[in-house]
Amino acid sequence: RAPVWARDVFDYLKLARKKSEKFDLIILDPPTFSRSGKTSFATDRNFDFLVKEAAGLLSSKGNLFTSVNTLKMNRDEFQGKVMKGLEGSPFKILKPLSVPRDFKLTSAEEKNPHLKAFWIGP
Predict the structure, then answer these.
(1) Which phi and psi (to 5°) does residue 88 adopt?
(2) pLDDT tens digit sequence for 89-117
């Protein structure tokens, strides 16, 4: 059985970097907003930093799945945050993912679906 850790993601990423850990797969699916102690996280404000920290822990052939569930960012803004987070790394967006066809979207959601996701790799 795999171990389970419950802690602030930024604390964990810092610890993993300190220990020089590398991962073959990282899944980033943060809440749109959260507060932990005196700090807060918002996808529209901090997502690029989260991607940068996670990408720094990927093995050379590792993959990163990242998604957000928010209307605060449109797909282009989300892609911009992901690209900014990947700057200086050997990783790139391999495949954008969209809302499954069987999921009914309103006309407004068709232009800006709340769910946005990318597969990232070397």
Answers:
(1) 80, 0
(2) 999 999 988 776 777 767 767 676 778 89
Tokens 């959260």 belong to 34
Rounded CA gap, 86 and 53, in Å? 9
Look at the alpha carbons of 48, 27, 112, 70 in this order and tell me if their dihedral is positive or negative.
negative
Helix orientation angle between 75-86 and 43-55, rounded to the nearest 10 degrees: 40
Residues in the chain: 122
Identify the pLDDT of residue 121.
96
pTM: 0.82
Residue with the two structure tokens 């990408």: 55
CA distances from 50 to 92, 102, 109, 113, 121 (A): 15, 30, 25, 22, 16
Q: Which of 26, 65, 29, 71 is nearest to 47 (CA)?
A: 29
End-to-end CA distance of the chain: give it in Å, rounded: 29
Distance of CA 4 to the CA centre of its chain: 20
Query: Do 100 and 110 meet the contact criterion of CB atoms below 8 Å apart?
Result: no
